[in-house]
Design goal:
This protein is an alpha/beta fold and 235 residues long. The protein has a single domain, classed as Decaprenyl diphosphate synthase-like (Undecaprenyl pyrophosphate synthetase). The protein contains seven helices and six strands. It has a six-stranded parallel β-sheet, sandwiched between helices. α1 packs across α2, α2 packs parallel to α3 and α3 runs parallel beside α4. The two termini are 30 Å apart. The protein binds 3-methylbut-3-enyl trihydrogen diphosphate (2 copies) and magnesium ion (MG). The site of one 3-methylbut-3-enyl trihydrogen diphosphate (IPE) has 11 residues, from β2.
Length: 235
């Protein structure tokens, strides 16, 4: 492959499952199912390309505002997805981590998340980071509350708080910031995803609905990224 600069960390806002289903006269539930299938394929491609960290936005803190039946279907889909990850974890070296307010999820899902994280904690292949019940505002507030408690109990002084120290209170502790953010379905917004961590990431938007996002589309995004010059404020 021609000089491909594969990002170390790719983050994806997997959007458009609902519109994909609507266009095909299918239920939203089937749209989300197709989205989960797309994720299986794209995570494999990312792994094969040598991506070290893949972060995907699966459910936001705002997505609870959807209908009870859609939320229920999504929780069931996540449950099945974690079962499949657990079943296949002997066959690959994915290290799975969930970010977000995990304690706000149904208990059975919390257990499945702990199980897959525990089972894969020593793997050294691709880090697969699933944002579920994730909102950057919520993440930052949880970090600030934690920091305040530590200051109150004299663990450190406010003056000792540096950027790196602050970042170590976020759910993404020990995870490098994304190099490339991809959002599908033509929307050009962050929808409360990784606000702190995306400060210097490159953004790539695709009009495709997430279930249609193909291996070639991922390659196109990476090719586009490869041609960019990142400056981080320098000349
Ligand atoms: C993304 O697809 C998946 C989740 C937010 C869970 P959407 O369900 O948002 O699809 P659209 O945006 O309605 O098409
Ligand atoms: C963002 O998509 C969340 C996920 C992809 C999980 P949304 O569809 O919820 O975002 P908005 O509402 O269009 O901003
Ligand atoms: Mg959407």
């Amino acid at each position: 492959m021609e000089n491909l600069n594969v990002p170390q960390h790719i983050a994806i806002i997997m959007d458009g499952n609902g519109r994909w289903a609507k266009n095909k006269n299918l239920s939203v539930k089937l749209g989300h199912k197709a989205g989960a299938d797309a994720l299986k394929k794209i995570s494999r491609t990312a792994y094969d390309l040598g991506v070290k960290y893949l972060s995907v936005y699966a459910f936001s803190t705002e997505n609870w505002k959807r209908s009870d039946s859609e939320v229920k279907d999504l929780m069931q889909l996540f449950s099945n997805y974690f079962d499949a990850l657990t079943k296949n974890c002997g066959k690959n070296d994915l290290k799975v981590k969930c970010i977000g307010n995990i304690f706000g999820l149904p208990e059975d899902l919390q257990k499945k998340i702990s199980k897959i994280e525990e089972m894969t904690k020593d793997k050294d292949g691709m880090n697969f980071i699933i944002a579920i019940n994730y909102g950057a505002h919520d993440e930052i507030l949880r970090a600030v509350k934690n920091i305040c408690n530590q200051v109150l109990t004299n663990k450190f002084l406010p003056s000792q708080l540096t950027e790196d120290f602050f970042a170590s209170f976020l759910d993404t502790k020990n995870i490098p910031n994304p190099d490339l953010l991809i959002r599908t379905a033509g929307e050009m917004r962050l929808s409360n995803f990784l606000l702190w961590q995306l400060a210097y990431s490159e953004f790539y938007f695709s009009d495709k609905f997430w279930p249609d996002f193909s291996e070639q589309d991922l390659l196109d995004a990476i090719k586009n990224f490869s041609a960019r010059k990142r400056r981080f404020g320098t000349r």
